[in-house]
Amino acid sequence: MNRSSVSLCVGLALLLGACASPHFAAMALQPQIDGPYATSLSKTDVRQIIELSYTREDIRKPVYRTYATSPNQADIDSGRPKNTGDPVTGFKVRRYKGSWIIIKDSVYQTEVIITS
Questions:
Q1: Residue 37 domain-assigned?
Q2: Which of 79, 80, 81, 76 is nearest to 106 (CA)?
Q3: Is residue 14 scored above 50 in pLDDT?
Q4: What is the mean pLDDT of residues 75-80?
Q5: Is the C-alpha dihedral spanning 42, 73, 65, 100 positive or negative?
Q6: CA-CA distance, 86 to 79, in Å (whole number)?
Q7: Alpha helices in the chain, H assignment, sequence order
Q8: Mean pLDDT, the chain, as a whole number?
Q9: Residue 102 lies in a domain
Q10: Whole-prediction pTM value?
Q11: 78-106 burial, b for 16+ CB within 10 Å, e for fewer?
Q12: Would you say 75 and 90 are in contact if contact means Cβ atoms under 8 Å apart?
């Protein structure tokens, strides 16, 4: 291999590594956002909430639904449910001093029930 081929391979490997990182994935995915305060959540809020899920091994990925219960609190659903019985994670988040945090003891595992 010549020097330019090696440089190309290294550059491509770095790019692919960056694309596989949780941070990149968090920015690429856009969950369903609803609830009475859905319009109060900014893109930055949603990104911070998604990134929180990547800090916990007990939370399935990706976040697929954010239900804003107030301007500073939301219920989150995460995982990859496709069929009834598939495992998912639920948890609650709150804005605390300008940053989003997972509410203590709010993370739970359950199975999805698909009705339609």
A1: yes
A2: 76
A3: no
A4: 97
A5: positive
A6: 9
A7: 3-19, 22-28, 43-53
A8: 84
A9: yes
A10: 0.75
A11: bbebeeeeeebbbbbbbbeeeebebeeee
A12: yes
**Residue appearing with tokens 């959540």:** 41
Query: Residue 57 belongs to what domain range?
Result: 31-111
Considering the domain boundaries, does residue 24 fall inside one?
no
Report the amino acid identity of residue 105. D
Helix or strand or coil: residue 10? helix
Q: What is the pLDDT of residue 105?
A: 97
CA 92 to chain centre: 13
93 Cβ neighbours under 8 A, 6+ residues apart: 49, 52, 73, 74, 76, 100, 101, 102, 103
**Residues 66/49, Cβ–Cβ less than 8 Å:** yes
Place of tokens 């976040």: 63
The SS3 assignment for 102 reads: strand
Residue 107 belongs to a domain: yes
Q: How many domains does the chain have?
A: 1
What confidence score (pLDDT) does residue 115 get? Answer: 86
